Amino acid sequence: MRVNVSSHDLKVSDHKHHLHPFTDHGALGVDERRVISRADGVWIWDSEGNRMLDGMAGLWCVNVGHGRQEIVEAVRAQMSELSYYNTFFKTTHPPVIELSEMIAEIAPEHMNMVFYGGSGSDANDTVFRLVRYYWDLMGKPDKKMILSRHNAYHGSTVAGASLGGMGGMHGQGNLPVPGIHHIAQPYWFGEGMQTGMSEDEFGLWAARELERAIDEIGEDKIAAFIAEPIQGAGGVIIPPATYWPEVARILKQRDILFVSDEVICGFGRTGEWFGADTYGLKPDLMSIAKGLTSGYLPMGGVIVSDKIADVLHEKGGEFYHGYTYSGHPAACAAAIANLAIMKRENLVERVRDQIGPYFRKKWLELGDHPMVGEARMKGLVGALELVPDKADLSKRFGDVGKVGTIARDHSFNSGLVMRAVRDSLIISPPLVITEEETDQLVASARQALDLAWADVRKQGLA
Ligand SMILES: *Cc1c(COP(=O)(O)O)cnc(C)c1O
Question: Can you tell me where the transmembrane regions are (predicted)?
Answer without folding.
Answer: none
